[in-house]
UniProtKB/TrEMBL annotation:
This is Cytochrome c oxidase subunit 7B, mitochondrial. It comes from Lates japonicus (Japanese lates). Pathway: Energy metabolism; oxidative phosphorylation. Keywords: Membrane, Mitochondrion, Mitochondrion inner membrane, Transit peptide, Transmembrane, Transmembrane helix. It comes from the Eukaryota.
Amino acid sequence: MRKELILESGALDHSAILTRVSEDARLRNMYRFAKAAFNVTGQAVRQVRHGSTASAEFHSKYGNGLMVSGAVFCTAVWAYVLTQTGITWNLSPVGKVMPKEWREAEEE
């Protein structure tokens, strides 16, 4: 049986009923969401435990070549960016900016 709040005027307070129902629904939905999220992570863990599709030979066969080619690519891209794009890099102004002459504070 639902509890209903009666206001001083004698009318039913339907907002209290709706709030209570919506809180219950919110908790049920949160429970369902948490259960589904836990299920997904559990499935992912089980898939990883069953083994990877990549063989152990892959790293010994291609590992060094991939590392070297990645380093060469990264170096080439940065060399292009630093030399050809014309970006102003905001380097140190030492030797380029002349300081203003010192000005004594005016005494009153």
